[in-house]
């Protein structure tokens, strides 16, 4: 269980590589990185968006397939090519007038470190690097790309009384 008052979370921000996709990627012949995604993560993300939780993607990657995937789930805040993630995090926080303690951030590696130190609730997958695990309130038992998004969103939504509460939960 996440050791945090999840009822005050208004936004969940996800890194992609190593969090919503596995830490290993296949390279296509043209050099384009190909990722896998978890269907249960997708279900949880789209439900969270429908229920009013602000979900954002914050990634250093630039693959348009990532944008297509998460836009298709209703995510409108997709930040790609983020070389220094703390700058994008601050802009997102200010855009929605959020306090750090209202934001849960899920990352797995050193580029996420600064943001995870600032966000109110830092979480990571089971296979995150040791430096990230040390600063997290919660280390999921799921590896990146294998349901960590679902694990975390489900806990937030259950804490807020928004998980499986009406017919919206039973469709895409």
TrEMBL record:
**Pfam families xref list:** Hydrolase_3
Q: Where is the signal peptide?
A: none
Keywords for this protein? Hydrolase, Magnesium, Metal-binding
Cross-referenced Gene3D superfamilies:
HAD superfamily/HAD-like
Could you give the subunit structure recorded for this chain?
Homotetramer.
Record NCBIfam families: KdsC-phosphatas
Q: Which family does it belong to?
A: Belongs to the KdsC family.
Question: What protein name does the entry list?
Answer: HAD hydrolase family protein
Q: Which organism does this record belong to?
A: Prevotella illustrans
């Amino acid at each position: 269980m996440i050791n945090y008052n999840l009822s005050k979370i208004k936004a969940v921000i996800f890194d992609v590589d190593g969090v919503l996709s596995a830490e290993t990627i296949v390279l296509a012949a043209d050099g384009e990185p190909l990722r896998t995604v978890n269907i249960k993560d997708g279900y949880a993300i789209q439900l969270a968006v429908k229920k009013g939780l602000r979900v954002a993607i914050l990634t250093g990657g630039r693959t348009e397939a990532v944008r297509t995937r998460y836009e298709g789930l209703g995510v409108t805040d997709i930040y790609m090519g983020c070389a220094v993630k703390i700058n994008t995090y601050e802009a997102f926080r200010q855009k929605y007038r959020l306090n750090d303690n209202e934001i849960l951030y899920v990352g797995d590696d050193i580029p996420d470190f600064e943001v995870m130190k600032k966000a109110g609730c830092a979480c990571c997958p089971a296979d995150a690097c040791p430096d990230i695990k040390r600063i997290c309130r919660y280390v999921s038992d799921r590896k990146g790309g294998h349901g960590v998004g679902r694990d975390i969103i489900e806990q937030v939504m259950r804490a807020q009384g928004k998980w499986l509460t009406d017919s919206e939960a039973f469709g895409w």
